[in-house]
Amino acid sequence: GLPPAALASLSGFLGVLGSHCADVTDAVRQITGRPARSLRDFVRDRSTVFLPSSFERLLGAPAPSFAAAARVATASTADDLEDLAADEVLIRVMVAGVNGGADTFSVTRAAAEATDIKLGAEGVGVVVAAGAEADYAAGDRVAFIGGGYSEYTRVKARLCNAVDEGGDAAEQTAARVSGLTAAVALGHTAPVTSGDVVVVTACCGATGSFAVQLAKAAGASVVGTVGSAAKVDAAKQLGVDRVLNYRHESLADVLAAEYPGGVDVAYEGVGGALLGAVCANLKPEGRVLIVGSISQYPHNDETPHHGVEGVGDIMDDVFRPGRTVELPNGGRLIGNVWGDAFSTGVLPAFRDRLYADLAAGEIRALVDGTRFCGVSEAPAAVAHMLA
């Protein structure tokens, strides 16, 4: 982890030290009566000593867009340590997830009197301090929810889960919300079975890409929509059986002609005409899982209507209240894709299986190669994601 120049300067010393490591270890044990400890363990046990006196975080206030709301603020590390509750951890953020919907709506739908909203939906980092009741210790790598756009963030321990410290932090971040949403939705709320026809809109998006892989693993035939030619190959590599660029083909026509038996499950996060096409081609008892409606995000100039009979605004009337709407053909629109996963306690099992599959290479996250570094670049990252 040392900079190349520092490593070059110390290489001779480290080489000599390494060649006599056993002698040094024995000497430490004889002198102190305790086994020698690594530098890493020494730092881990004294993690707060090595913290900076202050750090940057991104805060927001009610505004018509994320960029207009966000401001970089300097926070006192001592204050966060002093305020650390028994059930909280302080985390050094390694990677923050860019969640266009959550990031945008955290400020555009915030209460008028809200101030200093901690921005950033999720991330992965290393615990540097833990409350007495937290099940984590300094040095543990965790995925977490809340306050991701910050160099350090204080969150409830229950909103964290331990992850493999040797894993890809960006992929681990993507799995925390986007991956787990797909896993629970397609494995519990509307279970996919072998032979099902599954439609995934925005199939190369964060949660859509996980949905494709999970549906394929369950034995389904997957129809995936994309909005550009560049994403066609990416969709095929994920395993999509029928890739459709909705700018050049009609989803309604393709489903009617190529899948006349109808759609069993749709994982829908775009809204508008794509939602209408799925509902028009849904099997009786088919299910449409509403995971958002990108076409209604504030960065769009206009909101296209879906045309689904008896259904109003998909975000306000179905998604946000978590309603299930019965369709005329017997199918259902499901606004709460988590179902009863929280109340029944099944969520941790899905989360643990997802991260095990990620670590084993059985599933992967699509990570945008564009790098944004530092808290101040978070607004640009959100804009890039929504572009």
Provide keyphrases for this structure.
387 residues; alpha/beta; seven-stranded mixed β-sheet; five-stranded antiparallel β-sheet; 14 helices; 15 strands; 37% helix; globular
Summarize the structure.
The protein has 387 residues and is α/β, with parallel strands linked by helices.
Could you characterize what this model shows?
The chain has 387 residues and is α/β, with parallel strands linked by helices. Helices cover 37% and strands 21% of the residues. It has helices spanning 4-19, 21-32, 39-45, 66-69, 77-83, 100-108, 169-189, 206-217, 230-238, 251-258, 272-280, 314-319, 347-360, 378-386; strands at 54-60, 71-76, 88-97, 117-118, 122-130, 141-145, 152-156, 160-162, 197-200, 221-226, 242-245, 263-268, 282-290, 324-326, 332-334. It has a seven-stranded mixed beta sheet, with helices on both faces. Strand 10, helix 9 (230-238) and strand 11 form a beta-alpha-beta unit. Helix 10 (251-258) packs parallel to helix 11 (272-280). The radius of gyration is 24 Å and the shape is globular. The two termini are 35 Å apart.
Provide a count of the helices.
14
Mean pLDDT: 91
In total, the number of strands is: 15
As a percent range, the share of helical residues equals 25-40%
Please identify the structural class as seen in this structure.
alpha/beta
How is the main sheet built?
7 strands, mixed
SSE series: HHHEHEHEHEEEEEHEHEHEHEHEHEEHH
Distance between the termini: 35 Å
For the biggest β-sheet, the strand order reads 11-10-9-12-13-15-14
Give the C-alpha Rg: 24 Å
Percent of residues in β-strands: 15-25%
Q: Poorly predicted ranges (pLDDT <50, ≥5 residues)?
A: none
Overall 3D form: globular
